[in-house]
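Handout, section B. The chain below has 147 residues.
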Amino acid sequence: MTVTEHPPVADTAGLYQQVQQFYAQQMQLLDSGRAEEWAETFTEDGVFAANAHPQPARGRATIAAAVRAASDEYAAKGVQRRHWLGMVSLEQCAEDDLHARCYALVIETPRGGQSVIRASTLCEDRLVRRDGRWLVEERQVTRDDLG
């Protein structure tokens, strides 16, 4: 997916607000360790791919299991992770189909310790609206340090 493939979104204010709200709710689910609910923000056959992972996670059950394992690992270490998304840009592919691109910072705070930015990433999503709500059909996360 590239920035030049699709024209900019026409109704920027309303659509942009919907997507911002979607991301806010989605990241709060993730950072709260609610893996199964977070996976529900993907389509049933959704894909989560990242250059930090050898293979993409395909399907809600696989995505939920991967997030559950990571959440449990950080909780056991006493580390709180927060994802901060910004610089969101949207391109409309069809009425209920968007390409979203944003930057994401991953912040880690060990219990009793200093917060640190652990990763800076580019997040590219294919968002589709199903039954009145936005879902991720495909997500590609590219960590800047892994290029």
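Note. The first strand starts at residue 42 and ends at 50. Compare this with the example in section A.
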